[in-house]
Amino acid sequence: VDAIKAKVCAQKGIFDCVYEEGNVDECRKVLVAFNSFGVMLPMSAEDLKKQCPSTQAFAGEPACAGGSGILSMVTDIAPDCFKNCQQLCGPLDTLITEYMATQDVDAIKAKVCAQKGIFDCVYEEGNVDECRKVLVAFNSFGVMLPMSAEDLTKQCPSTQAFAGEPACAGGSDILSMVTDIAPDCFKNCQQLCGPLDTLVTEYMVTQDVDAIKAKACAQKGIFDCLYEEGNADECRKVLVACNSFGVTLPMSAEDLEKQCPSNLAKVVPTTSR
After folding, report:
1. What is the share, in percent, of the chain residues with pLDDT greater than 70?
2. Is the pTM of this model over 0.90?
């Protein structure tokens, strides 16, 4: 039980969704079930903070489990930064490894900007003091990373296009066809790349619109970025294109909520037709 609690705390940011207003009543059923087995998980966001204070250190628990040795050297500078910003682990590992191989500062900066949404966590009020240690360390090697959210926006304006830099690096050819419709949409919403790649690939195989909609609704929080003020106009191009193929996606945040209400129980198909 202690090991499970430690791992929950080590990546507590992932669990915030559980306690959001539209989810907490449904998610509480899962928490109660765990508690019935003696794993006393937090029942509210306040309980989570009490059980997992940001300053808590977990002996023997790496900040980015499974990362490279080079990444471990970086996370050791400020482990709490990465425990609170788990979404940084994979992308930063890739960036560090590439920098060590190429020493190409401009390429690294471009890739940071191409997925800048992932880095927002660094500048949040509860994280910035700890994460600044990492930024200072990078800057000492000549990689001048933004020291604040304002600096990040200045260095990486949303309208900036990076020549030759795919919107979703490592995605399938089918995903590339989609991202090419509106690359800035995906550069600003990097969290979409993996899930959308899976959905698009499955649709091309099965043509099962209902199954795709169910899976989209089951992880609808990932799609919120599409409808944010700075992204909606660009991302609408993708929605229109999907709709032209008969996959009628929500055209606004309001439409998304109507099609995928928070209290809707979604049965996600596990097999293809």
Report:
1. 79
2. no
